[in-house]
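Researcher: Structure prediction, please.
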Amino acid sequence: MNFKEIQDLIKLINKSNLTEFKMKDGDFSLSIRTKKYGKNRAPQILQSPQQIMPLSAAPMQVSMPPPSAPTPAVNKELIINEDSSKAATDSEEGNYVEIKSPIVGTFYRSASPDKPQYVKPGDTIEVGTVVCIVEAMKLFNEIESEVSGKIVKVMIEDASPVQYEQVLYLVDPNG
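Model: Predicted structure follows.
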């Protein structure tokens, strides 16, 4: 299964009502859990994790809180934090289009430290322009733009970890 097929599969699962998807083909295995996974289930510890690609930017909860801890308050706090960070992004971005990470990994603005950055604020890009690299499991994946316009802002620092669907760049489509 190639990278593009995995991306398409993630998008399809994200749009469905599935909570978990597992696939095995020879030596290759894939396990995907959506945001809905833990809603009606107790968390489980995997015996031998293979390749897990989370579909949300929310932190994973490994253990259950003690019975005396108010679980709804923790969830409410997480929701408030997500909403406040989204509101901050909304106010900054105006009418800009976001370029998001299609995978979890490490974000790099250039092919290597001695090479120039793929794009920087002020650069005009077209659909298909390579804007960065995201390293995932020792594979360096070139991320191409799905929009045309002018790069307005880089939303993440070089060599930083990124989550699935995390905003990498803001693009002015009119620029």
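Model: The chain has a mean pLDDT of 75.
Researcher: Thanks, that helps.
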